[in-house]
Amino acid sequence: MRSVLGAAAAAMMMGAAGSASAQISDDVVKIAVLTDMTGLYSDNTGPGAVIATKMAVEDFGGTVLGKPIEVIVADHQNKADISANLARQWIDAEKVDVITNVANSAVALAVQGVTREKNRILINTSAATSDMTGKACSPVGFSWVYDTYALAAGTARAVVKQGGDSWFFLTADYAFGHALERDTSRFVTEAGGKVIGSVRVPIATPDFSSFLLQAQASKAKVVGTANAGGDFINSVKQAAEFGLGAGGQRMAGLLVTINDIHSLGLKVAQGLVTTDFAYWDQTDALRAWNKRFMAKHGKPANYLQAADYSAVTHYLKAVKAAGTDDTKAVVAKMRELPIDDFMTRNGHIREDGRVIRDSYLVQVKTPAESKGEWDVYKILATIPAAESIRPLDQGECPLVHKS
Q1: Is the four-CA dihedral 324, 52, 379, 255 of positive or negative sign?
Q2: In sequence order, which residues have a C-beta less than 8 Å from that of residue 219 and are 6 or more positions away?
Q3: CB 185 within 8 A of CB 160
Q4: DSSP secondary structure string, 305-373?
Q5: What is the rounded CA–CA span in Å between residue 330 and residue 256?
Q6: Calpha distance 84→333 (Å, rounded)
Q7: Is 381 helix (H, G, I), strand (E, B) or coil?
Q8: Is 141 helix (H, G, I), strand (E, B) or coil?
Q9: 284-297 and 46-60 helices cross at what angle (nearest 10)?
Q10: What are the two backbone dihedrals, phi and then psi, of residue 368, each rounded to the nearest 5 degrees?
């Protein structure tokens, strides 16, 4: 009798294990990294984002619920139409379960529309427009680390408090730049400053001379760079050549990473105040993880690349907890599980898809203060999530239940 019961129990266990494995569609969990591999955002995202994603998969063991995890990659070329078509192909033909990164706001908005329609998860770790969790929010879309509201909240308040009470914007002429100018303008005026004007600059512009002349002529105390990556680097370098700093104008970096500072050099960037979300030398946990990342990439991760690891790890935890890669079940677990890792403490996902976490006000060190090639920041203050993340009722997200 005992042997019969044992056989029955073994059969039940095997059946349960088979049932769990069978819940993985197509016998594989497929993660697609859609990023800028060759363009102006490639240093901040690109190959580093792919490395961080693969590290997350490796650290998870390479499988989930007994099935392999596969990572595929594509360069979106900073084109929304190409990205939307690729997302459809990935989902329809290649059975992708989740798309990550989407380093460009126009790309992210387009892909979010596709994933909403196709009921597949999108985890945005790099696109900044706050509209991703605002009027364009999605029940299957998440914004993991930052947005234009959070970038503006920290930097604009600090700069106005330091006396920078008149602003002129150099604005990247697409969804990201427009949102960053909009959100920063709000905080400038709320802090008692004023916006004198702005100029729209085509993305990937090599020559900023005509735009900088307009900024110079405005006599604004602060020239806000509502751009990123290569555009940010070029605008700051050329502003120095045009003598904006010597003339008393100050550059404000609204979306800056350590890669940008490294490219500029401390001599040019020193004193710049900006907002960061996971500085590599900030804690023991960040230093330990970045030691591993540097061994693969040759330099520390910026907060966007750290977010790729964090987001993919959380997604895989949710798949495991749900016992399936079914979108509805995984989304529910992602919202239910807390986020507590080397870059985010006591984080959680809000109703609109926004990850709630603190940010940090930082200042670029002088050459004399720096102790090494990547020792670029001193942390001025922690900005609590309540002060840097847009209140839920202000985002115009149609998913938010009105009281």
Answers
A1: negative
A2: 166, 196
A3: no
A4: HHHHHHHHHHHHHHHHHHTS--HHHHHHHHHHS-B-SSS-SSBEE-TTSBEE--EEEEEEPPTTT--ST
A5: 32
A6: 27
A7: strand
A8: strand
A9: 110
A10: -70, -30
Q: Which residue type is seen at 264?
A: L
> How many of the other CB atoms lie within 10 Å of CB of 114?
19
DSSP string for 237-304:
HHHHHHTTTTTT-EEEESS--HHHHHHH-HHHHTT-EEEES--TTSSHHHHHHHHHHHHHHSS---HH
Q: What's the rounded Cα separation, in Å, for the pair 169 and 214?
A: 10
**Length in residues, the chain:** 403
0.70 exceeded by the pTM?
yes
Q: Is the dihedral of CA 109, 49, 78, 104 positive or negative?
A: positive
CB 168 within 8 A of CB 220: yes
DSSP state of 25: G
Tell me the β-bridge partners of 36: none
DSSP 402: P
Q: Which residues of 143-162 are buried (b: 16+ CB within 10 A; e: fewer)?
A: bbbbbbbbbbbbbbbbbbee
| pLDDT tens by residue, the chain, 403 residues | 334 334 334 434 444 444 434 499 999 999 999 999 999 999 999 999 999 999 999 999 999 999 999 999 999 999 999 999 999 999 999 999 999 999 999 999 999 999 999 999 999 999 999 999 999 999 999 999 999 999 999 999 999 999 999 999 999 999 999 999 999 999 999 999 999 999 999 999 999 999 999 999 999 999 999 999 999 999 999 999 999 999 999 999 999 999 999 999 999 999 999 999 999 999 999 999 999 999 999 999 999 999 999 999 999 999 999 999 999 999 999 999 999 999 999 999 999 999 999 999 999 999 999 999 999 999 999 999 999 999 999 999 999 976 5
Residue 374's nearest CA partner among 282, 305, 309 is 282
245 CB-near residues (< 8 Å, 6+ apart) = 239, 251
In a 10 Å sphere around its CB, with 0-12 CB exposed, 13-18 middle and 19+ buried, how is residue 7 labelled? exposed
By CB atoms closer than 10 A (0-12, 13-18, 19+), residue 18 is exposed
The angle at the Cα of 127, spanning 123 to 129, to the nearest 5 degrees, equals: 115
